[in-house]
Target: DBH-like monooxygenase protein 1
Amino acid sequence: MLIYLLALKMGHFKEFLSCVIIVILTLSHPGHGRANPSNILHRQEAMDNGNFIVDWFINFEQQTAHFLIAVKTRSYIGFGISLYGSMDGSDIVIGGVFDNGTTYFSDRYGTRFTEPIVDDVQNWEFVEAFETETHTVMRVSRPLDTGDWQDKPLRDEDMYFIWAYGSENATDEIIYHGDNQGSLLVNPLSVGSPKPNTQRRTEVLDDNGNYVVQWLIDYSTKNVVFQVDVNTTGWFGFGLSPAGGMTSADIVIGGVHANGTVYFDDRHATGQSLPVRDDHQDWVPLYVSENATHTTFIFTRAFDTCDGQDVPLTNDTLNFIWSYGTTDNIQYHGSTNRGTFQVLPLDPEEPPIETEKYFKYEITHTMTMPSVDTTYWCTIQKSPRFTQKHHIVAFRPKIETPAARAHTHHYAIFRCTPPANQSAEEFFEPYVGQPGGDCKVPNPGIPAPYCQTMFYTWAVGGKELIFPDNIGCPIGEDGSEVDYYMFEVHYNNPQQLIGVRFETGATIFYTDELREHDAGILMVAHQTSLALMVPPKSPEYKSVGHCDPYCTNNYLPESGINIFALLHHAHLSARKMKLRHFRNNQELPWIKNDENYDFEYQQTRPLTDSIVVLPGDHLTTECIYDTTWRDGTTIGGLATRDEMCQSTFWYYPRSQLRECRSEYQMPQLLAKFGIEQIANRSYPYEDVNVIAPAQFAGLRYTEVLDNRVVWTPQLREEVQTDSSFGLHDGVCYIIGGSDNVPLPTGYPTFPEEYQPINECLEK
Ligand SMILES: *[C@@H]1O[C@H](CO)[C@@H](O)[C@H](O)[C@H]1NC(C)=O
Ligand SMILES: *[C@@H]1O[C@H](CO)[C@@H](O)[C@H](O)[C@H]1NC(C)=O
Ligand SMILES: *[C@@H]1O[C@H](CO)[C@@H](O)[C@H](O)[C@H]1NC(C)=O
Ligand SMILES: *[C@@H]1O[C@H](CO)[C@@H](O)[C@H](O)[C@H]1NC(C)=O
Ligand SMILES: *[C@@H]1O[C@H](CO)[C@@H](O)[C@H](O)[C@H]1NC(C)=O
Ligand SMILES: *[C@@H]1O[C@H](CO)[C@@H](O)[C@H](O)[C@H]1NC(C)=O
Ligand SMILES: *[C@@H]1O[C@H](CO)[C@@H](O)[C@H](O)[C@H]1NC(C)=O
Ligand SMILES: *[C@@H]1O[C@H](CO)[C@@H](O)[C@H](O)[C@H]1NC(C)=O
Model:
């Protein structure tokens, strides 16, 4: 069995040394916890106002403790373990670096009156010490129980870390340490209480559980600590990739050689070949351990390393790419031990709910998957009958069999609203229990236009949606005893398998113990209509939908609403989505931005802190489309080749407002193409016959745009600018009706756009 605490003896680690200091200091609140309950605990405490930092790892399997101690001094460091907090009888190590570069270290024990006495047996293992301009760093390790009476065993109970160090410019002579000493009560084998403003996430990246990544996000210091546990004694690779493959990926490769040396490099991909070592090493290794079968590697980095050869961690959709080899020869690439895992890396993970406390119902569909590559299947479903109000508190994916996991690409549940004067039951009930239909065909035999309020979605990697403790989504209120839903499943069957049958869907948990606040859902969108139009072969085309202050003024409560989760929704051509927030002609921080939106990876995203929207605020959803992959004009519509532009969020307390939309004024848009009159439509998104002028008569709207309009770069730009920045017609949709915004709407005339702070420029 081998244990390595970063064999930094190796020359190429030397350039990490200055980084280690920087990271350790910015990790002043790293949070902590048992990174892997069965294996390694990683925790950090800062003492003496951050001048004395102890970062430690407990390897439970090997019963060892590993300390990394970073202190703001170039003199000696003293660190110890004491049962009562005093020097007397304590277990102490003293070490440092002489001015000539030689390191020194000794395992000692404390007495009341003298300098600590050197132990007869040196049980603490000195790994290394080094100095930077301002700091001394020392790494030491030891068994939890050394069995030596001159040491103190590390147990799962409270004891004291005692610390001392020579003052800043002192020599390394161990003299009286003046004020530079103290103690901290700590249970060294426990996770401690979670640090504020941190989140811990875990994902199994492969199908067989051979590659597990855990990461600790610290929003205060903007740092992440990763731990990968890989079922190999060879090399591992871990990377961040915006697009999914090797292209532009930021990669680390590490492992432990047979002779015990550790290797770990920050690299970047330049193609399908071995990634190239970065000029600057920004991923910092903290701990390595290898047993007979597994390698555990812990490393850290900033959200944004400010290195063009790295990929920043942001709120955008990203991919973890992973690989491993059976040997330490990184040149060798196995074809199977690699993959891509889509992730929102900085989103919080919600704590599990105690499901036995709640009632539940399911929205699921069981059928034999059609033997074609891609199917979108829609059914109408309903809730149980409620005779009184209840609160929904959580959604949990129900995708249980291997076939369901392999072939459910994603699904969406939409809430249905009947036409104005009909009851939900009489309108939707006939569709319930029916086999449903292919959602992509123009007339799937289900009332899709009445089921457009996004309720819950799941995509591979999707999480439970759990409401905050004091919030519930009301259901079963007066007049609507049954809730109706359209359930849309994307079946993925690239091998066109025949006869594969499985159930897929969600379990919805609810309670009759009503919570303090009713949650509401509010959508800010461009109307799904012909006015939402993307010219053919547009690489980066913007559309926007406004929620006018008229709607927020008239329908939100005086104290405003609090957004706690959000879902962006658009279709196959959407690449970026943003919900912007304006108040008094000032732009506030974006409510949610995704520069890497992927239709196949839609998630309802909890917010780390709820965001308040006040009456009079203006909200705008912006979408950027790329239609170069398809022929023809893209129009607003229900099919996935058609487009939408919608931000839907969960908020409390519930207000009357459920949707807030706008659209560019159709006559102005038609005028740009020389269209004078179009026929009436049943739905605003239906492609339509052009009536006038005569040369277009009988052609469909999209045919005119595809074949008669000459899409010069100028025209494309003009249509985009006018439809984004020109005047829109706005509508507030409220419970049981709608209210047109009386005056045309558009962006507020604000002085300056919100610019996120670029910390790299400030550094
Ligand atoms: C470095 O300095 C220390 C303390 O002055 C001394 O004991 C040691 O011999 C020196 N080592 C070398 C290689 O000069
Ligand atoms: C330590 O030395 C540096 C550089 O010589 C000096 O700037 C600093 O003030 C000194 N600190 C103390 C506490 O004497
Ligand atoms: C590790 O991988 C081997 C195959 O290489 C497999 O037999 C074993 O079950 C895996 N161990 C774990 C814990 O998954
Ligand atoms: C350990 O093995 C690796 C790979 O064979 C080699 O590059 C390295 O120099 C060796 N290190 C030591 C200290 O022997
Ligand atoms: C090796 O470590 C892994 C996790 O890192 C652990 O699951 C496994 O049980 C360990 N194997 C042995 C033989 O102790
Ligand atoms: C992510 O979004 C939140 C708001 O939801 C914001 O506070 C935070 O600064 C963003 N993080 C990054 C790294 O952009
Ligand atoms: C709904 O109202 C329209 C007129 O507003 C009426 O013609 C129609 O019959 C009504 N439908 C039902 C089901 O009441
Ligand atoms: C289209 O609708 C308008 C208003 O609803 C109506 O006046 C007109 O007759 C309709 N035109 C056709 C061709 O149906």
Residues 521-745 form a domain with the Jelly Rolls fold (CATH 2.60.120.230). The mean pLDDT is 89. The longest helix spans residues 713-725. The chain has four domains: 1-186, 198-343, 355-518, 521-745.
